[in-house]
Each structure stands twice: as structure tokens, then as C-alpha cells.
Amino acid sequence: MIQATGLTKVYGAKAAVDRIEFEVRPGVVTGFLGPNGAGKSTTMRMILGLDRPTAGRVTVGGRRYRDLPAPLREVGALLDAKAVHGGRTAYHHLRGLAAANGIARRRVEEVLDLVGLTEVADQRAGGFSLGMAQRLGIAAALLGDPGVLLFDEPVNGLDPEGIRWIRRLMRSLAAEGRTVFVSSHLMAEMALTAEQLLVIGRGRILADTTMTGFIAANASTHVKVRSPDLITLAPLLTARGWRTAPADRGSLLVYGVSPAQIGDLAHAARLRLHELAVIQPSLEDAFMRLTADSVEYHARSRDVA
Ligand SMILES: Nc1ncnc2c1ncn2[C@@H]1O[C@H](COP(=O)(O)OP(=O)(O)OP(=O)(O)O)[C@@H](O)[C@H]1O
User: Fold this and answer.
1) Where is the ABC transporter domain positioned along the sequence (predicted)?
2) Which of 54, 116, 117, 208 has its CA 20 to 30 A from that of 290?
């Protein structure tokens, strides 16, 4: 369990993290989302004792990181996969960490095997691809068999097989009763991995809820209508007070209405429908709507292709 109370970090005149309160519980994967500059890394760094809070506190299993007697056995973290001494082999990197933390040599072999690096254990980590470096970082996080795991952008640079592997790993670590806290900008991936969500914007908590609750609360289902008679159909839809938005060619999105209502309307007007589909909102839809006011650096729409 990770607990923050009144957690604050001020840089100069700016509060990067502003009196936040949260609990990250064991047994589920909790996603940590926020636009660029929202305060995610600062929060993770404070959890790991790498930054000192300006005010408030954050604890792991009831204790601040710096008060943990054997930190690696309590918390494992992947923050920056490339922050490895490049001249060392993967094995020696892990062996050094294990020795410094009183962890048996046998465990080094176990974690190498777990992340699929056994065959390259004797190669220098400096020559590793980003994907291999991510795996090595994960091996280091798992070394002390900790109950709490933090992953900052863990799927960066991974191929689809690697992404799927991480997703399964995180879910199985949570299913074993561990606390798994993961940040990512990849919404579709997060939607598949996390059950619980913590959303931050401009240093404040914007949402602390389940994945399904978050999407339901911040985005609505809508219906996609494709019709060769759209020119006639569209005004009939808006005349009913239904909000519409253009979709791809020859189709419209209609909000707050069922497919049956649209089908009946089209039938009564003797208009043809070629497609009528319920579109479930995505995590990205919900996230964009919730954080629209919290984004630090907006691209002006005409700057975007
Ligand atoms: N060492 C520092 N000195 C001054 N300002 C900082 C420092 N570290 C972070 N900040 C500022 O604090 C805010 C939060 O930054 P942080 O890196 O925690 O955001 P983030 O949510 O991790 O962003 P990203 O998604 O871009 O990684 C930003 O405005 C950032 O510029």
C-alpha cells in the first residue's frame, strides 16, 4: 500500500505537486495518468525517496522510503531504464544490486529468467536495445521480491510482444497481492492493464476511481450512423435535439441516443442506413475530456496536422 497525505513539492514559485492525498492499494494494477508536466514523475520520485516533499508525506507500507530497513525488498521501481552502468554485464549489474541489499545470488538467476534475459546475461548492458534495457530494469525492480512495484512508462520502446509480456506481468504481480503502480501515456495499453486509476493534472488529483467508473463518468457512448441519405437524415437528427459530430466520410456520430431511435427515425423518413453501430467510449476520450483544462502546453488546433 502506498499512502500520500498533503503531499506537496514546490519548485521555486511553482507547486509541481499540490497537497495531494491518495492510496494505492494491493491486488490491482493502478494506472497513474496525467498530461505532460502534471506531476507524475515528481510524485513517483517522492515515493522512492529521490525527492524530498516540501510538505506532507508519502509512505510505503506505513513507512517513508528512507525509514525502510531493506528498501529493495519492500519497493521495486523502474524509472529510467537507461540508468544502468553501461560497462557492466546484465548479470553483474543485478549481482551488484543483490549483494548491496543482502539478496541471494540465486535470485539474480531467477529474475533474469523471469524477464527473458538469461541468454544475454553476460553481455554489457550498454549495448542493450531499449526493450532489453526495460527488461533489465524490471529484473532489478523484482530482485528483492517486493510487495510494492512502481513502473514509469514501462512499455517505452517495446515491441508488441514485449508490451503484451509487461501487461501480463503487471497483472500477475497484482494478482499475487502486490501493489502495482504504473504510469503511461499510452491510453489503449493502460485501459488493458489497469483496473484502478489515479489521474493528476497541474499537481492536483483529478480522479481516483476504477477504470470502468472513470470512463463512464467522463465520456458517453454514442452511435455511428452511415447512410447514403445523410444530407436528409442529419437535419432530422438535430431537429430532435440530438447532438451530432461528423465522423469519416458518409457517417455521423450521434450522442445520447440509442441505435433503435435512429433506426426508427430513418425508417419513418424512408431513408437508407448502411451502418448503425454503438461506439463505446475509450479511456483516451475520457482522459482528454477530464484533463482538457489541465494541459500545460496546448497545441493550437491549426498547428496539428
Ligand atoms: N527539478 C525540477 N526543477 C524545477 N521544476 C521541476 C523539476 N522537476 C519537475 N519540475 C516541474 O514540475 C512539474 C511536474 O513535472 P513532472 O516531471 O513531475 O511531470 P510529469 O507528470 O511526470 O510529466 P511527463 O508526463 O512530461 O513526464 C512540471 O511543470 C516540471 O516542469
Assistant:
1) 2-227
2) 54
Residues 23-67 pLDDT 10s = 999 999 999 999 888 999 999 999 999 999 999 999 999 999 999
Q: Do 11 and 31 sit in the same domain of this protein? A: yes
Phi-psi sector, 57: left (phi>0), alpha (psi -120 to 50), beta: beta
User: Does residue 59 lie in a domain region?
Assistant: yes
Q: Is the pTM of this model over 0.95?
A: no
Tell me the mean pLDDT in the region 173-182. Answer: 97
Query: In testing the pocket of ligand 1, which one of 8, 40, 294 has its CB within 8 Å of the most ligand atoms?
Result: 40
Atom of ligand 1 nearest to the CA of 35: 25
Asked if residue 156 and residue 31 are part of one domain, the reply reads yes
H helix and E strand count, the chain:
11, 13
| Residue 261 lies in domain | 220-280
Q: Which residues line ligand 1 (CB under 6 A)?
A: 11, 16, 34, 36-42
**What ipTM does this complex have?**
0.95
Q: Report the share of the chain in percent with pLDDT over 70.
A: 94
Helices (H), 145-257: 160-175, 187-193, 211-218, 230-239
Looking from the CA of residue 51, the nearest atom of ligand 1 is 1
143 and 82 together in one domain = yes
Helices 130-142 and 105-114, interaxial angle, to 10°?
140
What tens digit of pLDDT does each residue of 88-113 get?
889 999 999 899 888 999 999 999 99
Same domain, 113 and 71: yes
Q: Rounded to whole angstroms, how far apart are CA atoms 114 and 111? A: 5
Claim to verify: residue 246 and residue 100 sit in the same structural domain: no
Around Cβ 272, how many Cβ atoms within 10 Å? 12
